[in-house]
Amino acid sequence: MTILITGIIVLIGIHLVPALPDLREGLIGRLGKNGYRAVFSLVSTAGLVLVVWGFARAPFIQIWSPPDWTRYVAMVLMLPVFILLIAAYLPGEIKAKLRHPMLAAIKFWALAHLIANGDLASIILFGSFLAYAVFDRIAAKRRAETGLVTVPETGPARNDVISVVGGLLLYVGFLVWLHPLLIGSSPLP
Asked: Within 10 A of 38 (CB to CB), how many other CB atoms are there?
């Protein structure tokens, strides 16, 4: 469990740096923009590796037993996740309205998995990411109010179509093939 918690602290910790403008600007001043990006990427990757490795090695300690129906709630909550992930990188109405579709995707993903999993490692992992996404959305809103973050511009309608169609295809692919392959369990009954 120590590896998982360390990974969460590293991954979320580095992603909180943009919420602290003075720290971020100080790091950019010392490392340069590209140096900052390189360190951010390396630390993020290390954190992700630790999270995946730690979660795979964490002991299974059942805290509660989710009813069977929670799997269906999770599948419904996961539906927008892939659409929002794509929309985060394509300027369109979805991105303009939500402003932070990546954080919305993290919230849906974490909530879905908290509902469907009752083991300690899952509660720690998904609870941490849900708390991070809520905090970072509030912090991003405050940064926007001070002018530190610009409001996303809207883009062509085709970007929203790409987000929806691509997201639905990814959702089906992950539901049917990738979740069992990568995670080792099928969300389908």
From this structure: 12
pTM as predicted:
0.89
| Closest CA relative to residue 182, chosen from 72, 83, 56 | 56
pLDDT tier for residue 149 given thresholds of 50, 70 and 90: low
Sort residue 100 into left (φ over 0), alpha (ψ -120 to 50) or beta. Answer: beta
* Spatial contact of 40 and 17, defined as CB atoms under 8 Å apart: yes
> Is the pLDDT assigned to residue 16 strictly greater than 80?
yes
- Give the pLDDT confidence of 30-68 residue by residue, as tens digits: 999 999 999 999 999 999 999 999 999 999 999 999 999
Rounded (to 5) percent helix, strand, coil in the chain: 80, 0, 20
| Amino acid present at 179 | H
Closest CA to 49 of 8, 95, 89: 8
- Contact 20/74 with Cβ under 8 angstroms? no
DSSP H or E segment with residue 129: helix 120-145
